Amino acid sequence: MTSSNIPENGPENGADSGRILETLRLVKDESGASNVLSFASLEGVAVHDGHAHISLSTSRADVEKLEPLRPRAEAAIAQLPGIDKATIILTAHRAPGQPPIGGGHRPFRLDAPANNPGTPEARPGGKLLPQVRAIIAVASGKGGVGKSTTAVNVAAGLARLGLRTGMLDADIYGPSLPRMLGQHAKPFVENGKLIPIEAWGMHAMSIGFLVDERQAMIWRGPMVMGAIGQFLGDVAWPDLDVLVIDMPPGTGDAQLTIAQKLSLRGAIIVSTPQDIALLDARRGLAMFEKMHVPVLGIVENMSYFCCPNCDHRTELFGHGGARQEAEAAGVPFLGEIPLLANIRASGDAGAPVILSEPESEAARAYTAVARAVADSLRLGPAA
């Protein structure tokens, strides 16, 4: 087992990775011959307010060997200075000990020419990504409704259900996926293709992996369309059960480009309960209808707030508007997501709340949405 290719989720978490790595080596099985790292490799670390979120990459065959060691490892990590609690998440997308795909190859540069633009493999009808069983879009008619947070947690929920999951951040002007996944590594190019970043059991790509997060993307429309086309045709997406696309807000060229280049299996509309947000959600519904993309359902985000001290429920933005809109449009209502501080904190910490706090109210809400999406797509776990 080697561990030289550990991703560092920011400079502060690089030191945490080293301490956690040494602790995992000390947690051994009953025979004393094997430790946690005999069956897994450290994939990611995010520490927020003393809570360490650790992702271990393993094989399905070794999951049973790791389960008895997981609580002991969490307890040991929680004893480290500066850490009060630890949560270990197991993913099974890469064989233990195998270095990240593309390691050692030259990094991709934004100013490098695209590789064979317009000539990727296509499914019947000229659509891209034939190796992906289902491609879904998460969209909103306007910004600020929590679309990206919903997309990340639903994607992580699908991966947690056993589906081989990818995530594409198509919001070129406001990429948030690197921060929300806690990943800042630069993608590599292998055989002329960008290699997706692996995080929390998913394969991910975003313009944010290629530019500094403080850099403003002052691009005209054709450049944005070119970047989206490159992410679709020049990324080495593996065989996936589902690819979740975090769409940019609104109903413009980017959405049309994605719908034209891909065979979308469906779209999820995210809205908050108030009337002004629902007006924009209707535009999103109308856009997908015109593009002949089925709407899998509507999610009501920030549906209600529960006081952490007294559990009093307050409907800050009204309540039930998205459900009524879904009924009026004749599409499924996928669920209500509460307005909770741990959703925001987990996103800032780079560990989706559905994984970092799987028993929380927020995680249960996202899990219900992920299950409804998987059921509607008739996707079972990967073989």
Describe this structure as you would to a colleague.
The chain is α/β, with parallel strands linked by helices. The chain has 2 domains: 11-91, GMP Synthetase, Chain A, domain 3 (2-Layer Sandwich), CATH 3.30.300; 122-377, 3-Layer(aba) Sandwich (Rossmann fold). It is 32% helix and 21% strand. The protein has 12 helices and 17 strands. It has helices at 11-26, 63-66, 70-77, 147-160, 177-181, 221-233, 253-261, 275-290, 321-329, 341-349, 353-356, 361-377; strands spanning 40-48, 51-58, 85-91, 122-123, 127-128, 132-139, 165-169, 189-190, 193-194, 197-199, 202-206, 240-246, 266-271, 295-300, 305-306, 313-314, 333-336. The strands form 5 sheets. An 8-stranded mixed β-sheet has the order 10-11-7-12-6-13-14-17, with helices on both faces. Strands 1-2-3 form a 3-stranded mixed β-sheet, sandwiched between helices. A two-stranded antiparallel sheet has the order 4-5. A hairpin with a 3-residue loop joins strand 4 and strand 5. The radius of gyration is 21 Å and the shape is globular. The two termini are 25 Å apart.
Tags for this model:
globular; disordered N terminus; 383 residues; Rossmann fold; alpha/beta; 8-stranded mixed β-sheet
Number of strands: 17
Oligomer: single chain
Most strands sheet: 8 strands, mixed
Overall tally of domains: 2
Q: What value does the average pLDDT take?
A: 77
Form type: globular
Considering DSSP H and I runs of 4 or more, what fraction of the residues is helical?
A: 25-40%
How many helical elements?
12
Distance between the ends: 25 Å
The CATH superfamily title of the largest domain: P-loop containing nucleotide triphosphate hydrolases
The radius of gyration computed from the alpha-carbon positions, rounded to a whole number of angstroms, is: 21 Å
